[in-house]
Amino acid sequence: MAKGANKFSPTNCVRAPARNESIPSVSGTYALALHLPRAKNLRVGKFGRFYFPRGDYVYVGSAFGSGGLRARLARHTRKNKRAHWHIDYLRAHAALRQVIFTTAPRAMECEWSHRLSACADAGIPVAKFGAMDCRSKCAAHLIAFPRGITSSQLRERLDDGAGQISNLSCL
Ligand SMILES: [Zn+2]
User: Fold this and answer.
1) Distance from the CA of 142 to the center of ligand 1, in angstroms?
2) What angle do the packed helices 109-117 and 151-158 form, to 10 degrees?
3) What is the pLDDT of residue 47?
């Protein structure tokens, strides 16, 4: 089996803050690959309480504010923090296994969300999760893969072959 075909390995985790030096502080779009080791009933702020089955999840977002990708991804890397976004509530219980990003000059999370949710094995655990302000009719910006998704499958699914995510990186 090719190395990239393995299940997420801990070496793909963004753990030490020092690793964030490899993330540019420019704007961009990112995908977080998360693993929830056991099913959880979680409160997601004022949004409500929802059931999250055990398995893999991919959250898509973009950082076009100050600090760019580096600051945003550093925040997602930290597990303990004051919850602000929907994803923060899930992140507190899930392991961050991989981060993929692109520095393409336009936000691509909706395109990535559509691409991922079109997969036969994908599910939407909570309608509109992370996508309350989304104008692209995304079902959600959090997509569940109950049977798991490998790091190479994720990269393949985000890559449209048009070179738009040529800066895609796996940490
Ligand atoms: Zn969207």
Assistant:
1) 10
2) 120
3) 96
pLDDT tens digits along 132-163: 989 899 999 999 999 999 888 888 888 866 54
For range 5-20, the mean pLDDT: 40
What is the Å distance from ligand 1's center to 133 Cα?
Answer: 8
Confidence of residue 104 (pLDDT cuts 50, 70, 90): confident
Average pLDDT, the chain: 83
User: How many Å lie between the centroid of ligand 1 and the Cα of residue 2?
Assistant: 33
Give distance in angstroms: CA of 3 to centre of ligand 1. 32
> 46: Cβ–Cβ under 8 A, 6 or more apart, which residues?
none
Tell me the CA distances in angstroms from 3 to 43, 78, 97, 99, one per residue in order: 37, 27, 16, 17
> Rounded to an integer, what distance in angstroms lies between the CA atom of residue 158 and that of residue 135?
20
